[in-house]
NAD(P)-dependent dehydrogenase (Short-subunit alcohol dehydrogenase family)
Amino acid sequence: MTAFGIREFEGKRALVTGGSRGIGAAVVRGLLDAGAQVLTTARTATSAPEGASLVTADVRGRAGVEEIVEAAHDVLGGVDVLVENVGGAQPHEQATAIPDEEWQEALDLNFLASVRLDSLLAPGMRERRSGAIVHVSSAAIYSPPPQFLHYAAAKMALETYSRGLAAELAPHGVRVNTVTPGRVATPGGEQTRRQWAQLEPGQDAAPVPLGREGAPEDIANAVLFLASGRAQWVTGSKLVVDGGEFHRG
Ligand SMILES: NC(=O)c1ccc[n+]([C@@H]2O[C@H](COP(=O)([O-])OP(=O)(O)OC[C@H]3O[C@@H](n4cnc5c(N)ncnc54)[C@H](OP(=O)(O)O)[C@@H]3O)[C@@H](O)[C@H]2O)c1
């Protein structure tokens, strides 16, 4: 038995981007516990949760994405579960002060990395008529902070893309869903909120209705659900996991 229940990923080959720490590492641990074989990625980290293989590559360009796909073929032989978790951005004082290069970087990291990775891995899933893709977005899309407009806009593009891809792949037995986290206690999340607080003191004062920040495992549980057979009739959906912070009508 595992935290997630039975070993329901036994025999599954999973690729998780950005799994050296934070939400990605929690997803990796959850998948390993549930019996999957896992390859994860990072740009600089040299270690991943015990039991997972690691490929070091930058997802912000086509070359890095191709390296990851090559490693997935070498290490796993194919991918049944693809979790695209990498993301982030540096805040700026004003939206209009975000330089072009950082808009491009935000799009590459938070949106185009998934487009490129899916374009290389979804065809294999389609051929096998089976596969689950989960994109990790951000609740920043609900009330886009000007300081992070490049990030929020890229995540919104990711969500729109995710729904369209789900429609294309559904007839081929491949599911595509999104998880949209609120504030989560991770190294990347904490660092970003510190930088943001310097630019806009008090921005983090609003209480989370459920009384605390999320833990990486709160998000991993949602990712694992959507990637698992329990969600076999779920595609083109998104699961917002934010402690009730964003009220959506
Ligand atoms: N934490 C939050 O509050 C929060 C809220 C909403 C949404 N999210 C989203 O959830 C996801 C995970 O966030 P997190 O807070 O867990 O992030 P994190 O703590 O910053 O971890 C990011 C992971 O991605 C890797 N990575 C970063 N840049 C990369 C690059 N260019 N190429 C390849 N790998 C790269 C990092 O490894 P290296 O540093 O070694 O490259 C690390 O493994 C992101 O998409 C984020 O936008 C987070």
In short: The chain has a mean pLDDT of 95. The longest helix spans residues 100-128. The chain has six helices and seven strands. The radius of gyration is 17 Å.
